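Retry 2 of 3 after timeout on previous attempt. Resubmitting structure tokens to design endpoint.
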């Protein structure tokens, strides 16, 4: 995960306190903020529901609907702060739970299921990606503007972050799993040199290794450059160590109809 800092919020969990923490992170130069959890700002001590109840009792003589006129703008200010932040923001939400009785293999079992997130209705749709997590730690996306996780059921891992990083760096939906299988035409083209294409900047979207019948290993990469998606090959297996989402400067040479990486250097490094 690398170096990180922790800021512990204490009650009351007001929206203003979350806003102040986010702005402090921005001023301090942080790139990512993880809010764990955003549910406290809704139903925790001093949160939105708590404030709305007190406003209804003290100011609006029990009129709970009228109390929302005072409280809703404060919640909206938090949402706007999250949406307009210069930081990438990851937030966790608790979920309302319910126990149901099911029958499996002739036996009655009681299982816990997750329902709606504990926050204002529709809050989850303010985020680019929203993943529901089951009690078995299986994630699925109920909203995904990236298209990276559509229709998938998976356990979140380091690769989940790598796919998001690739999408953020490249603005593309392709990931490692979307690399097409290498064709025989491409592999046959690894031998005869034609002309240099360019030495442009590319983002690595996906990568996989391929072994020829001779035992020689080549690396097949899905790159995204200024002119769009490019499939290219490299005989330098060290490129497998360059993480997906990284930016490289590569000189591509066309051999027959195949793009070959003649040389490359990772952005921020100096070529030998």
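Retry 2 succeeded. Sequence:
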């Amino acid at each position: 995960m690398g170096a990180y800092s922790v800021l512990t919020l204490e009650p009351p969990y007001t929206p203003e306190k979350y806003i102040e923490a986010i702005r402090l992170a921005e001023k301090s130069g942080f790139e990512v903020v993880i809010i764990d959890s955003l549910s406290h700002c809704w139903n925790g001590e001093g949160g939105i529901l708590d404030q709305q109840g007190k406003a209804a009792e003290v100011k609006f003589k029990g009129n709970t609907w009228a109390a929302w006129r005072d409280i809703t703008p404060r919640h909206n200010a938090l949402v706007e702060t999250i949406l307009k932040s210069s930081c990438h923001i990851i937030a966790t939400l608790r979920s309302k739970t319910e126990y149901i009785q099911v029958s499996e293999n002739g036996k009655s079992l009681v299982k816990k299921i997750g329902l709606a997130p504990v926050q204002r209705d529709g809050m989850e749709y303010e985020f680019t990606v929203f993943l529901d997590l089951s009690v078995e730690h299986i994630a699925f996306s109920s909203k995904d503007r990236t298209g990276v996780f559509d229709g998938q059921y998976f356990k979140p891992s380091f690769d989940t972050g790598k796919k998001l990083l690739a999408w953020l760096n490249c603005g593309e939906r392709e990931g490692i799993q979307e690399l097409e299988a290498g064709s025989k035409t491409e592999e046959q083209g690894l031998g005869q040199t034609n002309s240099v294409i360019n030495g442009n900047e590319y983002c690595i979207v996906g990568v996989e290794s391929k072994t020829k019948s001779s035992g020689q290993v080549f690396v097949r990469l899905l790159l995204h450059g200024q002119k769009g998606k490019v499939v290219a090959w490299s005989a330098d297996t060290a490129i497998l160590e360059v993480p997906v989402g990284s930016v490289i400067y590569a000189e591509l040479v066309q051999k027959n109809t195949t793009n070959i990486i003649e040389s490359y250097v990772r952005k921020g490094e100096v070529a030998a």
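Attempt log closed. Helices lie at 15-27, 40-43, 48-58, 64-84, 158-170, 184-188.
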